[in-house]
Each structure stands twice: as structure tokens, then as C-alpha cells.
Design a protein that fits this description.
eight-stranded mixed β-sheet; zinc; ubl conjugation pathway
Length: 1305
Amino acid sequence: MAEDGFWSNGLSSGLALILNGEDKTVNSQKNRLVAYHDDFGHKSLERTLEYVFDLPYRAISPVTGSLDATLVRFIIKRCVPELPLQCDSHLRNREGICVFGHGCRPVVSIDQSSICGDLRIVSPPSLLESLAIFSSARANACVWKGKWMYEVMLETAGIQQLGWATISCPFTDRMGVGDAEDSYAFDGKRVKKWNEEDESYGQPWVVGDVIGCCIDLDEDLILFYRNGVSLGIAFAGIRKMNQGLGYFPAVSLSQGERCDLNFGARPFKYPIEGFLPLQDPPCAASCISQLLQCLSRLLEIERMGRAESTSVEQLGRLQRFVPLEDIFHPVADAICEELFSILDGEEGATEYIAWGLFLTLLMDLYGLHVPHDHSSLDKVVDVVLKFRSSSLLFQHVIGALSYGCKTASLVLMECPYSGSYSYLALACHLLRREELMILWWKLSEFEFLLEGFLSWRSPNKHDLQLMMPSVWWPNSCEDVSHESSMLLTTSAVSDAIDKIEEKHRDLCCLVIQFIPPVRPPQFPGSVFRKFLQSILIKNRRADRNITPPGVLGNTLLVSLYTVILHYLSEGFPMADICGWSKNHGCDAKDDVGFLHRGGQLSFPMELFLKNDPQKIDIPRIGGSFSNLLESHDVHGQESEVISWEEGCMDNEGTRVTHFTRQKPCCCCSIYDIDFTRSYRDPIRSSAKGSRGHSSSIPERSAHVAAECSTGSLNDEIADKPSSSDHHHSQFGYRPVQHTRTIPKESNLSSAMLREEELLDIMLLLYHVGVAPNFKQASYYMSHQSQSISLLEETDRQIKERPSIEQQKRLKEARNIYREEVIDCVRHCTWDHELVFEVWNIKSWSDEDWIKAFVCACCMYRISLLSHWKQRGMYAACMRTVQLLLVLSKDDSLFGFVPEFYLEALVDCFHVLRKSDPPFVPSAIFVKQGLSSFVTFVVTHFNDPRISSADLKDLLLQSISVLVQYKEFLAAFETNDAATSKLPRSLLSAFDNRSWIPVTNILLRLCKGSGFGTSKHGESSSSSVVFQRLLRDACIEDEALFAAFLNRLFNTLSWTMTEFSVSIREMLEKNHVLEFQQRKCSVIFDLSCNLARILEFCTREIPQAFLLGNDMNLRRLTELVIFTLNQMTSTTDSEFFDWSVKRHGQSPEKINRGMILAPLVGIIVNLIDANTEVESSGRNDVVEVLASMDCPDTVLCGLQYMLGFNWAGFSKGNVHFGKLSQLEDFLSHLISRMGSRELEASVLRQEAECEDSMCCICYTGEADAQFVPCLHSSCYGCITRHLLNCQRCFFCNATVIQVIKDETKS
């Protein structure tokens, strides 16, 4: 009652504190919760303080004065152990180490005198980068006794050798750690351990891995850990060392490699039990730990008051402490004052505490997942920021949070708040304070730390195995439970990635809104722009397969791409701050995502014409930037803005814009509704086909649809909860404190970050960051498809019950194929791509389709192609292709377009096209998305203004892919640009470089009408439109067709020669390598395709062979006979069929009939046309064949064609009529050859008396001469030779003129 009366009467001034002399070690917690309350259940101030400072009951006598920081500090001084005792106790356990340096507590770091090569400290204290081919260095500490460790965080994941070495280990530009005696290293790039010689060890490492390098000198062992998991004993029995001559931490890095060494200056990310850090931790660590625990208990008072659990409520009634607001500030101020006095007194203590104890306190207070405790965290931060030394403390906290983002792993049991989420969430909340944002911005490592926040650690094979222990695919023999397990796993991982991406956007939003305190004032977005420019400069010479030095890998690029795509597509929540809505002349309430704005569109040309350092080395469509400036006068055009009306390049009848009644598919709510319905009931919707969409994220499904109406984007954001399922205000979320304003008279248009600039950057990020992910996924998809085929083939062979030895080998092979499939499925699931498309879907049952659809939906949620991203990518494609079409009208401007615009456009378009489930129904995609794209690719794949042959090939290959699909081919047939330009452009593009894609396109356009082709249903999907257009183009432009035909003859002759040589080599060696078999298969396919095109030419343009000069006919017949000779010369039919077989194709489809069928078609076409062409002036096919100097080869080849099993090849669709024609033709040819033989004998007799025969063909008279050398030959041989070479057969002189002797003719 006395205590209660004292509290009710208020606190008087003065200090009246008496601490009891009880021993604190006595267990004072017995019945503490009950004993601490008085008769009325209220606790006094003294009991509350005893709880906060973990003191025994009644350790504090009644307080008679006011509670202030001075009084609390007095309590702390009496309760916290003395510092010297702590320090001495710690040092007694550190024997066996020697640190070379100055001072009583020297810092372990890299010994500068030991560096060999060129090592740069990117960020202190020990973030290293090698600038030389191979650089090595040791630390300034050695150990000879005990168990020690240090950690290495990998900033890059290339060749690095990490480990231990003695002072005698030599470092050169070729030798490093592990390359000499008493030198031991681990290299996760090559997955080897090194000690003079290499040996397989460990796991492959990835960017963000933390490698623990441990040495146990008690047991003479060296071990390595990856992210806290032991890789096993690397080296045993290492040599004992004497004091001062022990093992030094040492690293060797190849050029461009970076790593962050932690010798103990910071707490280890993954401490290993029993191993000590090389750097002695601060003496005050234990003392500071107690102070922070006191601060945590202080805040627990408020948490207990907010507890919602029934049991906790009952407990709270027994624990009624003094209200927190009455004691928080004096107690917290005193704790922090004591904390900073200790930190200021010991060098290096602030960094150690910030990375460890203090960061742990902040994360515990804030919470690792929603709902976060904003109130408790803000109370602590407010108090800490009162102290001047807090700046250094929070500098290290920000660095630790960035480090945590780079090294965090996705843990399945922690999803969805796993990975870097907790670090990002805390960082976003802290950086909403202006003073902390300014503090971060002023750091020299600002951009480096921001890179870390936006990076994540990609899993390797072993990580994926832990993350996805169960894998399933259709028709697999895996346990049925694996299917549901995989669905749950992919769903959980997808949710975690969604949360991380949300926090990436929040953080970038804070950076964009930040206005730096400089003069003259800058604009919102200026800091973010500078950061983006820095990233682009680092990546300007980046190969898409190799991460350039100084970049954390493409996870950073992918994160930035995703952030910008969301801003441009879904809208920026603070668009009014950046002035984006004002720039476009619309009110804030009418502002919509940039990519979904219709009407008048524009693009500033300065983005192409300005001489920016980050773009100076980027290739342009017309060549290098410097050369373009010399050849094009663009002075004054930098300030121009290109404008166009949305959809202006589309046909008027099919134009769809944001202002037409039918909206673009990216903004039409009906597809979002279908998508949502499909995902909620995927099995039911899959029965109707894969028309649904795969993302489970609500993603404001009607958001973009509403953008086409008069609704308010800002209203929509304000009315909806955050994606963390709670309003910020619900937990006291701190509003952004950035209140600095910009003068109105500033030039907004040129200084602020514009949306067009973000689009430009986003396309480059896609090119250098996102596209490689799809490329890698494509590799795994292809490899998975092959492995599944091999697995199924092996299962089939096992069922045939082979011998015991064969069965053993087959089972071993099956295990290998199965592991490859499982590995590919895991990588495809993670690598932001679908595995759905690579499965052998032709063999699936309806049930397989349903299961696959369900699995694909969940896998798809992990991908870069969640629905809102698809929508944004589609809109970006449409805007980009419209911009390119508009610019193509101006020769001076078109050449300045960066090449990555075209590459990103084509790649992104095909990613959307291949998505399954599709972004929108294919019919809508073809109608709305394909028209402009088709117009562009058919117009420019042979555009002379495009200097890069690779870029032209990309456009040509894009056409080649699209025309393989019937629905896409229809889009070409209805496109004006395609029908008017494509036929002639294809004929002219058939050259030494592009003949393969052109061949594929022509084959697709002409297929279905040849001999023996109806068996695959090809005639139903042939393009009659383009066949007619190609025929007209060949007839109207004889010179173009003649050049095309000449290149076609030469190419087919070359492919058949290469095929013949490859077959002969395999027969001679009597063994076949895989690449040789693959080469034969590819060449054979190409030869078949070329023969089909020749067949089309003889059917549609027979006059090119039957009228005029007989050179084309002779070349054609010679090529036919040459091909037949190659087919008949291979006597082993089984060997031939095996040589041309490919994975996944049936043997009956891959055989000699593929090349024989077009040859039959060629001859029959000529026979048919021979009867239709007037006899006068007509070239006689029979006569040409009969005149060849190899009659036996001709007859043998034709007879082989007649005797081939066409019924088996064509599956009943045999053209018996055409085979009868061929048989009649052969009979007529034999008769003609008999007559020719009689004539030839007479000519040979005459030739003995006259030396005027052509010495090339020996069938005609030498009636023409070369000028100036006057060598003679027949006119036909000379004409054919000059098609490909302008030099004389005999003397190689340059031919100026050919003189024909008409009298001899």
C-alpha cells in the first residue's frame, strides 16, 4: 500500500535510489510474475525497472524523486558487469594466432605487401576486386594452433581460389592459393579443391554464397562450408606449424572477380560451432548485448498490452507494469547514452554491433513478416537518432541490410516472407525517414548498397533440390504424391518472390521520390536516374552470356527491369511528384500507366541522338554512333519529339486502340476475368483448352481495363489495401518525410526523369538482363525434352526384357536420364520460364493435359511472365514497334535507333507468343498483336539501312518461326506489307549467310503440294496466297529469279557433297561420334528442304527450265542425278537411316524417301510441263538426260526411285499416276539413249579427225572464246561458269568478253 500511495502522490524531485546488496546471480525469477504485483495487482515503478534491467525482486528501493536518465544510468552502472573483466575473460581463449599490425588490438585485414597482381578495395574494409588476369593476397594474421575461420561472400561467382597458405607459398600471375605445397584452396566455379594438384570437391557456388573457410589445427584439418552447410573435409593431415609461422588466410581471384572477406570485424553470417574468428570481437560486446536486451524488455511492456491471445491476456492482468509512455524516454535515453559511450570508446565496436546485436534487435522489434510492429521500431529509432554517433551506427545497419539481401536464401518453410523480404521491409521502413535517406545517399557506397538491395542469391542445383524435393512431369513414373507436393512448392516460392518484388518497388519508389539536399535543387528521380546510368555504363559492353566485372549478376538487372515495368504498366503511386501526369496534359485523376495511354503518342529523339556516355558504345541500327554523326546531319534534331497517333500503322478496318470500342488485349477486362476464372478452377478450364492465365496474384485485374475509362488511378490505389494485406496506417506505418520542394520556375521537361527514358532503359535491361534468363531456360527446356525422349526410349527397351548385362546398362542409363530430367524441371521452374511447352504433349492423354495445366499454372507464377508482367510486356512491344515503324520513314533518324530495341522487341514478342497458358487467346493475339510486328519484320529483314547482318538474321528467323504456325501464317497472308514485299525480299535474301532461314520460310509457304507430302496433312495448311505471289514475282523479275535459282543450285550441290563426305568418313572410321551424327542429320534435312523448293520452282515456273537457254535444265538434271547417286551409293540402308535420325522422330519419317520424293516431283513436273509448252523452242528433258556422259548412273538412279517403297513412305497416299509417268519416261529415256549411243560412235570417229570439241563437256563444239586469253570452249559451259566466277577455266585470267562463233553454232 505504501508503494501504491507513493505512485499515486506523484514523484518528487531529487535522487533517492538504494540498491539492495542481493547477489544478482540468485534465481530471482521464481514466481516473479505473481510476486511483483501488490494487493491491487498494480506494479510499482521499481518493480517495472527491475523487470527491464533483469534485477532480483526488490533490488531497487522506492524511488522518491522524478525518474530521469541520470537515475537510470546510475542503475545501469551498478547492474552491468565491468568492462575490463569481460575483455580479459575473452582474451584468455585466443591462443595460437598472431596478428601483424599496430596497436593493442590490431585489425585483421589484407596485407598490402603480399598482393600479387592488382587487387582493388571496392568497399572497405575487405571487398576486393581483381583487375589483373590473376591476383593473390594474404591476410596479416597467421594461426598455428586451435580452430579458426573466416567468411567470404561472393560478389561474383567465377574462378576464385579461397583458403589458407603459409608465408612460403609463391604468388605469381599464374600461381595462387592452392598451387603450391602448404597451400590449400577451394574453387566452386570449377568445383575443385587445390593443393598443388586439383581434385573434385564441394558444390558449385553462385553469387551471394557465403563460404566459410575453416582450419582445425588440433586435428590438422581444413574444411569449407557453403552457407553454413559443410562441404566435407577438404584436406586432412596438413603440416604442423611453429608459432609465428602458421597458416594465413589467402585468396586468389581471376580478372573481374570480387569477394567480401570477413575475418571477424563483423559477426559471421554462418558461425561454425567451435571455430573462432581471426579478428577479436569487441570487448564490450557482452555489455552491449545486455543493454540491448534491457531495451527489448522495455518495449515488451507495450507488446504485452497489445497481446490478443486469451492466455496472454490473463497473464497480462497479473503483470500490470507502469505505462510505457511514463518511463520509456528516460529509460531508453539512459540505455542509449550508455550504449554510445561504450561504442565511442572502442574502435571497430560500432560496426560489429550494428551488423550483429543492433540489427537483430531492430528485426526482432519490426518482425520478420506481416504484421510488422512499426510503433516499437519507431520508438527505438527516434531515441537512437538523438545521439550524434548514431550516424555511423545506421551507416553500418544499412550496409548490413544490403548484405543480407544479397546473401539471403529462400526457405520453403518461411514462405511467403522468406529470402530478402525481411531485410527489404526493414530497410524500406527506416529509409522513409529523411535523415536516414540523406545519410544513405551521402555514403560513397550508395549505389553499391542499392545494387545489393535489388539483388538476390540464385540457387544452384543442390539448393533447388532442397527447395523442390519432389518433381513431377506428365507420363513420369514418379510417385503420385510428387505432383501435389510440387504444386505446393511452386505456389509457396511464387508468393515469396511476389513479396520481394513488392519491396523492391517500394524501395525504388523511395529513391525516386528522394530530393537530395544540394544546390541548385534537383528533381525527384534524379538520384534514381544517376543510379540507372551507372548500371548501364557497367553493362554497356556486356556480353549476354558473361556478367561484366563490377556487376552483381543479372538478378540486379532483372529486378530493375521488373520495377520499371511495373511503374510504366501499372502506374507509379507518386506520379504527381515526378510530374509525369502533368507532362501529358492530364489531370492526376485521369493518369494511367504510361504504356497503356492511347491517343497521341510521342518520343524524344534526344534519347537516340544525345551523346550520352552510357550509350556511346551501344551499336546502332545504322552502325556506330560516331560514323552516323559523320554521315547524317542531325544538328538541331536532338530537341525534336516524334509524335504519332496510336495504331496509325495498322489497317483502318482492323485498328484497335484505347479509344476504339474494342480495347487492346492488354487493357480489356474480359481476358482478366477469364484468367481469374481459369486459375481458380484450372482443371475445369483446361478441358476447354489453354485459354486461361496462370498467375494467382490478384494484381488489380481490372486496373488496366479501367485505364481506358474515365476512372481514377489514384482513387483506385487509395481505396485498395497494400499487397501485404494491411493498410500502412493499421500498424502506424511511418509516412515519407521527404518534404523538400522544387521552385516552379525550374525546367521540368529536361531535368526530371521521364517515362520515355524509363522505357528506353527498360528495353536495355531486358536485353542484357532478362533475355539471358530466357536463353538459359530455353537450354534447359531443350535438354529436358531430349532427356525425356531418351528416358521413354530406355523404358521401352527395358520392357523388351533384354539380357541381364544389357538390362544392367539400361537401368544405369535410365537413372542418368531421370536425374537430368529432374534437374531440368527444377531449373525451368526457377529460371522464369515454362516447362509446359517442352513436354512431349502429343503422347498425353486428357488426364495428362489437365495435370500439366495445373502444374504449369503454379510454375508460371514463379516466372517473369506473371499476368501483369505479360500485360506490360505486350504494351511495351506495341509501343516499341509503332515507334520503329514511324522512325523507319525517316532515313536520318532510323539509323540512330539502338540495336537492342529490335532485339528486345523480337525476343519479348516471342516470349509472349510461346507463353502457355497464353497471355490472351491466340486469335486475339494474332489480330491485335501480330499485325504491326509482321509489318515491321517483313519490311526490314532485308533493309539495307540495317548494317548488322546478325540483326537482319534475327528478323528473318522471327519470320521463319511464325510462318510455321497456321494461325500466324494467316496474319501474314492478310498483311499488306507482307503480301507486297515478302516474296521478292525472300528471293533476294537467299545468299551465303541467310539461306537457311529463307529456305525454311519458302518451304513453309510452298509445302503441301509436292510429291508424297499429303501424308502429314501439310496440304491443308499450305499458303496458296504466297505460292501465287512467289510465282508472280519470279515471272515478273527474271533477273531476280535467275540469281536465286543459281544460288539454289549451288547450295543444294554443296549440302549434298557435305552429306556424302560425312557419311563416307563415318563408314571409314567404323565408329560415329554424336556431333557427326547430328551434323549428318542437319545437312540431310537442309538438302531435303532445298530439293522441295526446287520441286516448287519446276511446278510453278517450268518455263525457266524448258524455254530459252537449256543451262538451267542441264544444271537441274545434273543435280538430280548427283543426288540420286549419293543415295544409291550407300549400300547399308540401316546405317544410312541411323545417320540421319534425330531425337523424337519416328524412323519411318526419317529415311531416303525424304530426299527421293522431291526428286520424283521435279521430273514429273517437267514431264507435265513438257506437254503444255509449245514444241518450237522447247528444251527436251529426255534429250538432256540422254546426253549426259554417265548413262548407267542416270538409269540406276531412276530405277531406284521407281523401286522405292513409296507405299510405306506415304502411308497409302501413293501417287500411282505420277509413278506411272515416271516409268513411261524411263522407257522413253532408255530408247533415246540407244539412239544417242549410235550417234556418239559416229561423232567419236569424226572427232579423231577434227579437234574442235569442247574439252569441258565433250558433248558440244567449242564455239566460243574468252577475251583476252582466247581459250575456247562451248558457249553453254562458258555461260554456266561465268555465273559464279569471272575468270578463265584454263589460265585464271580475268574475262573481259566472250566471243561466240555463230558459224559453228
